[in-house]
């Protein structure tokens, strides 16, 4: 892997760490939205937006939802927006599959906390990149992930490949991750790695830590394979294009 630098250690308690990087040309292939499309690009890490206690509460939402299904491989997904839930080698729609029983699994408070956390992350991204929070829209996929050391059974399980979010999902402009478990305590491996020309920069997950970045090729990245334990996180994605916006999940 060449030279590796740690951008954020698990033991750090970072108020705000931001590194500006020149924007790639990826955004030029799409319609630009004034006051939102990245003109300043980079990556940031903060431990000051979501508390560890809130992260523990959100993790319990993920655990309850994922206990209903789970992938045969090492990576399981729960998307409260679309209802997508890993089940064996496939996905089911949580809301259709479980119907009214969903009320026994999640509460209105769960969804309110989820919404509040998402809004705070959105505001912090807007503040750091100097854009208007109201010009950003939540986009899909936005989902919980649970990763363990089980081998991959389908291509969905192979989460460790280097990729660029905007190349994978054209709607993405800003990507964020909220970590819900601790590197080296809850799991080994599973660090987030930015792959730069000169070196790799890693973020060690810590419950409550938010890592966020512009979604273009300036932030090529991957996740290391989890070696032991279980890693929980939420990927929360934003677009500048209102046509690709989605609403917060509702417990209906």
UniProtKB/TrEMBL annotation:
Keywords, alphabetical: Dioxygenase, Iron, Metal-binding, Oxidoreductase
Domain of life: Eukaryota
Listed Pfam families: 2OG-FeII_Oxy_3
Cofactors: L-ascorbate
Domain Fe2OG dioxygenase: 140-242
InterPro entries cross-referenced by the UniProt entry: OGFOD3, Oxoglu/Fe-dep_dioxygenase_dom, Pro_4_hyd_alph, Pro_4_hyd_alph_FE2OG_OXY
Family annotation (Gene3D superfamilies): q2cbj1_9rhob like domain (2.60.120.620)
One term of GO molecular function: oxidoreductase activity, acting on paired donors, with incorporation or reduction of molecular oxygen
Keyword match Metal-binding: yes
GO cellular component: membrane
Name the UniProt record assigns to this protein: OGFD3 protein
Source organism of this protein record: Cettia cetti
């Amino acid at each position: 892997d060449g030279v590796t630098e740690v951008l954020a250690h698990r033991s750090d308690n970072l108020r705000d760490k931001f590194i500006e990087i020149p924007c790639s040309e990826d955004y030029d292939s799409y319609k630009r939205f004034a006051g939102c499309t990245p003109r300043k690009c980079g990556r940031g890490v903060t431990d000051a937006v979501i508390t560890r206690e809130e992260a523990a509460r959100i993790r319990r939402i993920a655990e309850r939802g994922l206990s209903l299904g789970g992938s045969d491989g090492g990576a399981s997904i729960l998307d409260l927006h679309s209802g997508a839930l890993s089940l064996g080698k496939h996905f089911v729609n949580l809301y259709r599959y479980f119907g009214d029983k969903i009320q026994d699994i999640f509460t209105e408070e769960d969804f309110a906390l989820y919404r509040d956390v998402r809004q705070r992350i959105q505001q912090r991204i807007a503040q750091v990149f100097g854009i208007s929070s109201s010009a950003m829209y939540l986009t899909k996929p936005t989902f919980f992930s649970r990763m363990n050391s089980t081998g991959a059974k389908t291509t969905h399980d192979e989460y460790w490949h280097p990729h660029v979010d905007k190349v994978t999902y054209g709607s993405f402009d800003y990507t964020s991750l909220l970590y819900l478990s601790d590197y080296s305590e809850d799991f080994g491996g599973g660090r987030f790695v930015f792959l730069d020309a000169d070196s790799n920069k890693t973020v060690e997950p810590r419950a409550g830590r938010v890592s966020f970045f512009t979604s273009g090729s300036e932030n090529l990245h991957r996740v290391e394979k989890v070696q032991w334990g279980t890693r929980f996180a939420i990927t929360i994605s934003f677009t500048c294009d209102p046509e690709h916006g989605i609403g917060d999940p509702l417990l209906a």
